[in-house]
Amino acid sequence: MKTFISWNVNGIRAVTKKGFFDWFYEYDADVVGVQEIKAEPNQLEEIIRNPLDRQTYWNPSRTKKGYSGTALFSKVEPVAVDLGWGEEIFDQEGRTIMADYGDFVFFTIYFPNGESSPERLQYKLDFYDSFLDYIIKLKKAGRSIIFSGDVNTAHNEIDLARPKENKNSSGFLPIERAWVDKVVEAGFVDTFRHMHPEETDRYSWWSYRGGARERNVGWRIDYVFISEDLVPKLKEAFILRDVHGSDHCPVGIRIDI
Fold first, then answer.
1. N or C: which end of the chain has fewer CB within 10 A?
2. Per-residue pLDDT tens digits for 54-110
3. How far is it, in rounded angstroms, from Cα 129 to Cα 98?
């Protein structure tokens, strides 16, 4: 049984000061993918850059410092690791790490946020489509896939506290939600909703404003998706709401793989 965790830490240096590695070693997951690291490895202390007993991979943004970026911590060394899928326009912000473990491919991804401008919304949609095309090709080639991260979109009304008030907000626009529909139609399964189809008030992100986390006024925008061939091996899907340190909380799965 293996445990996979995804967490948008909103700054690896900041979350480390809030006990990230205490949680990391206590929880002892097999693979932890983090997003929005907002740092380069040379800016980090050695214990962060190379945690004990883990294979560690960093993909900081190449466009500007203190922005975006992903990291992967793994108990087992992957067969191969790629920092993106070969599309420079989507790889340059450090949003993707792809780890090939032989029997399956694991992604940690920080999908773009589209709320700042129409141009960024289009970038987000183009990123979505390019990534989906890529994993569909992998799936057709017979690969089993786990992809996780901050998707920056709540799929359905059950996935955010105030759907009516946010129907015109990026993160819940029909065009963004339609992409998640396409992911499902392509044979990828939202693990949390598969295991908890009717469960309400389960979110992974809360605004820092207005005590949103305390009042649980949140959004479920962090996911672990698996290719449909892995569904019989899925044992648990969870949201670790009580783990603090970021405006997001960790999400994950346990799977017999």
1. N
2. 999 999 999 988 899 999 999 999 999 999 999 999 999 999 999 999 999 999 999
3. 17
Helices (H), 6-164: 12-17, 20-27, 46-49, 88-91, 118-140
Q: How far apart are CA 146 and CA 99, in angstroms?
A: 10
Phi, psi of 256 (to 5 degrees): -85, 85
- For residues 35-48, one letter each, b for 16 or more C-beta atoms within 10 angstroms of the residue's C-beta and e for the rest, the string is bbbbbbbeebeeeb
Q: Backbone dihedral region of 186: left (phi > 0), alpha (psi from -120 to 50 degrees) or beta?
A: alpha
Instruction: Indicate the pTM of the whole model.
Output: 0.96
Residues in the chain, total? 257
Domains with residue ranges and CATH for the chain: 2-255 (3.60.10.10)
CA geometry: angle at 49 spanning 44 and 55, to 5°? 165
Query: Assign residue 132 a region: left if phi > 0, alpha if psi is -120 to 50, beta otherwise?
Result: alpha
Q: Counting beta carbons within 10 angstroms of the beta carbon of residue 176, is it exposed (0 to 12), middle (13 to 18) or buried (19 or more)? A: buried
| Structural tokens at position 52 | 């004990």
Q: Which residues are catalytic?
A: 150
Q: In this structure, are residues 239 and 202 in contact, taking their beta carbons and an 8 Å threshold?
A: yes
- Which of 149, 118, 154 lies closest to 131, judged by CA? 149
